[in-house]
Design goal:
Distance between the termini of chain A: 29 Å
Radius of gyration of chain A: 13 Å
Largest interface: A-B, 25 and 20 residues
Distance between the termini of chain B: 39 Å
Order of helices and strands of chain B: EEEEEEEEEEE
Oligomer: heterodimer
Low-confidence stretches of chain B: none
Largest sheet of chain B: 7 strands, mixed
Shape of chain A: globular
Low-confidence stretches of chain A: none
Number of strands of chain B: 11
Structural class of chain A: mainly beta
Structural class of chain B: mainly beta
Chain lengths: 110, 116
């Protein structure tokens, strides 16, 4: 049972916009920033969004992040076949003194 | 090339130990905190432990506290994870990651399999 809650799966068609949610609490997302990671099959995770809505160099602006109170969202516009991957949210939990991850959302591009 | 490379994984019997290593290159290693994150087969990511740039601060997940010890040697650009009293629940790929605005650099991972 993950501290951050994500829906296990999501899907969209080529060119579509999809949104992936991440629900937490006052001890994590409510007080700390959220980061998002993309994990392609068989590879290490890659940082996609940090500090709620910042993109590292090299990440296309099709990816965007937002946060509201104790929840966060990752939006992907102009969906491409290469976007088919697992997506994880993460935040620091001030009560646990731990980083916590969501269980992950597997995105399928139809 | 900026990279992290893990090593030290393998097959170990329940109750056994392994020392994992994470060696950095291409950046100023001593300026960054480093984390270990693991992923059991077919499962999600689980944060395991972290160590600050100067080793002043170390944190552990409850699931490994008292069994795992993190350390670093900045002269060798390396972070280590000593894993003791291993059980089947510790079977996973172990990644090390640099913290620089999120975990912005990851290694390829090293597989730890705990089985008799």
């Amino acid at each position: 049972q993950s501290v951050l809650t994500q829906t296990p799966s999501a899907s969209g068609t080529l060119g579509q916009r999809v949104s992936i949610s991440c629900s937490g609490s006052r001890s994590n997302i409510g007080r700390k920033d959220v980061n998002w990671y993309q994990q392609l099959p068989g590879t290490a995770p890659k940082l996609l969004i940090y500090n709620n809505n910042q993109r590292p160099s090299g990440v296309p602006d099709r990816f965007s992040g937002s946060k509201s109170v104790t929840s966060a969202s990752l939006a992907i516009s102009g969906l491409q076949s290469d976007d088919e991957a697992d997506y994880f949210c993460a935040s620091w939990d001030v009560s646990l003194n731990n980083w916590v991850f969501g269980g992950g959302t597997r995105l399928t591009v139809l | 090339e900026v990279q992290l490379v893990e090593s030290g994984g393998g097959l170990v019997k329940p109750g056994g130990s392994l020392r994992l290593s994470c060696t950095a290159s291409g950046f100023t290693f001593s300026s960054y905190s480093v984390h270990w994150v693991r992923q059991a087969p077919g499962k999600g990511l689980e944060w395991v432990s972290s160590i600050s740039d100067s080793s002043r601060f170390m944190y552990y997940a409850d699931s490994v506290k008292g069994r795992f010890t993190i350390s670093r040697d900045n002269s060798r650009n390396s972070v280590y994870l000593q894993t003791n009293s291993l059980s089947a629940d510790d079977t996973a790929v172990y990644f090390c990651a640099r913290e620089g605005g999120g975990f912005d650099l990851w290694g390829q991972g090293t597989l730890v399999t705990v089985s008799s």
